[in-house]
Design a protein that fits this description.
Length: 98
């Protein structure tokens, strides 16, 4: 008996749980756009699925992806744009002005 193609396995084990994956990501990130991005990344990791409980695997990947995003966000330097300093009409020195 031939093994089912990966696309068939994906459709049967992962697609039915798209809403649960999105709801978990939205709950973890509190942001709809970030939740969509996290779910996309989780689905891209389907090649790592080796069988077993599809929903548990998917939700674990969503959780881990969200936590990785959070860690990166906490360690990334926060850059702010000062409109008065860098906006139109500012006297900031530029390379071109030198």
């Amino acid at each position: 008996m031939e093994a089912a193609p990966r696309a068939d396995i994906f459709e049967k084990t992962m697609i039915p749980h798209l809403d649960a994956a999105y709801n978990l990501a939205r709950w973890l990130k509190r942001n709809e756009q970030n939740a969509e991005d996290i779910v996309r990344q989780a689905y891209l990791r389907f090649d790592g699925f080796r069988g077993g409980d599809g929903p548990s695997w998917l939700l674990a990947v969503v959780r881990n992806t969200a936590l990785t995003w959070l860690r990166r966000q906490m360690t990334a330097p926060q850059v702010t744009f000062d409109e008065k300093m860098h906006g139109p009409g500012s006297e900031a020195v530029t390379i071109e002005a030198k």
